[in-house]
Amino acid sequence: MFVAAVAMVDSRAGALVDRTGTQPGGIGAGFYPFWAAMLMFVCSGLVAYRAWRTPTPGTAAFEGRDAVFSVLKLIIPMVVFTVAIVWLGFYIVSALYMGLFARWLGRYRWIWVAASAVAMPVAIYAAFELGFRVALPKSVLYDAGILPF
Amino acid sequence: MLFVGVALGLVVGVLPGLGGTSAVAILLPITVIIARTSPTSAVILLAGVYWGALFGGVITSILFNIPGEPWSVVLLFDGFPLAKRRGKPGVALASSFMASFVGAFLATVLFTFFARALADIAISFGPPELFAVFIMSFATLIGLGAESPAKAVAMIGFGLLLAAVGFDTITGAPRLNFGQTALLSGISFVPVTIGLFGIGEILASAEESGIGYVERIAARVGFKDLVETFGELRKRIWLVLSTALIGFWFGTLPGHGATAGSFLGYGLARQWSKNKEDFGKGEISGIMAPQAAADSAAVGSLVPMIALGVPGSPTSAVIMAGLFIWGLTPGPLLFVEHHDFVWGLIASIYLGHLLTFVICLSAVPLLAMIMRIPYAILTPFIVLISIIGAYSLNNSMLDVFITIIFGLVGYWLRKTKYPLAPLVVAIVLGDSTEKTFRQSLIGSGGNPLVFAGSPLAATLLVLAVLLLALPIVRSLRRGRRRAALEQDTVGTAID
Fold this sequence. Notes:
The complex is a heterodimer of chains A (149) and B (495). Chain A has five helices and no strands.
């Protein structure tokens, strides 16, 4: 688990060093990010070295498959719905998202599922769009003039 | 007017992402109408939002482990553990409210008497001195990652890199944008913080306890909690007063506000404490010190704004924009020409904090009702609010994606036991650190001795080195083999 994490940090730092390897000498634009990357590179290398030297007991990243699934159950819908905002707008997505969780994880009756799916976007609309005057992303249907959100 | 401002500020403070700065900005158009009759009421409304948000951000930090505001990030370290593991949410909340109140009160007294003089000192700070101040705040943080200084330094490096994304502030050259136009404006620390703490925490808790489990912290600040907290406060009164003093001084420096002050306060409390290992596990000093410093810095940040027209923090910059809109010019003349306005503002600080304190103590059970909401509703709710917070910052979907990505990053860093605080601080302070560093070098024609030339900067840098050396000395004394390696790390940090 430890080694995997370090490898990730290491490669990320390495990639950035490679990218910014402009003049580390003077005080050009590349100077500062280069040394920041260097700092990170050296330190994560150090952590990697230490992890390599001291074998850690219990190297499993997750405790059992249930833990993996319960995290993935959150991550996958979150990512899918966030990307969907680009086309469906915030309000439709939030209704679907609330509904999915209420039905799938909460196992509520359909009437409660519908209630939470409707109440949340309405409350958000009232608070942000009307109250604070923050315009949230609208759907393609809004652009086409079919829906008001 | 003050009550409306404070109540709005509290609501805004509880909502993660929608910060005090944006709330003040959103209210600006409304204040124009109010200012026609009385500019003093207008500034009182805006200041009320600021004070309310300062307190409100605390509640979600302590009860949900989600920072409502950037300056309450530091309360995650000890506030949430005290509420959850030690089962004392009432004491945790009361501690932060009381410390806020004491810190703000001290700062306001200082403001009243020393506003002019302090503004003059702050303006005399050049880039080398400011750079030294930043380095010192990083140095205090390295000790925070008590488990591994190397990991803390690595996170600082990562944060500095993220802060460097976008246009270079000096030469205007694009950096680290990998050919993406959207990244040219840089990565703001707000979506990163929302992701790291808000989303990351949800994922981590889902793994720990499985889906369907509801974290319940019955939070009610009872009379007993108040008495207990008051006793704890009396034990720490000098700590609270001194961090408040330092926070105030820090706030008066242009460009920083409550956030930087809160981290400085936490670092100092930890350095001064006899039992450092209690920090991160619910140590009350770890709540009181940063909170006192944050509130005090927030008040301090108004000093250069009012006295000189140089805003001390983003929020006071927005309030200053308001002053201009209302036809007032901030600066020394404001004290002469509009003394009623200045005194109205000062009065609002006294009354606003008293009011917020009372509202907070009585409204906590109400706010804690949020805890009874079942997981299947609360989880998507927090995700959606995080998305709104990230989006409304710049009306940009990129910020939303950054939030989600950093949610995953934050979850992974949590699993691999990397400290998150140094990362956030480095992102927040990264730009200013670089700017002051390079301005100093440009001013001296590339001569690095400029930092030794200024007595103040040199003293601060030496202090920073000492702070960095402390963990090394400690581990050397333990005689561990690792010590030699850590020294290498710190050597790089000073470079």
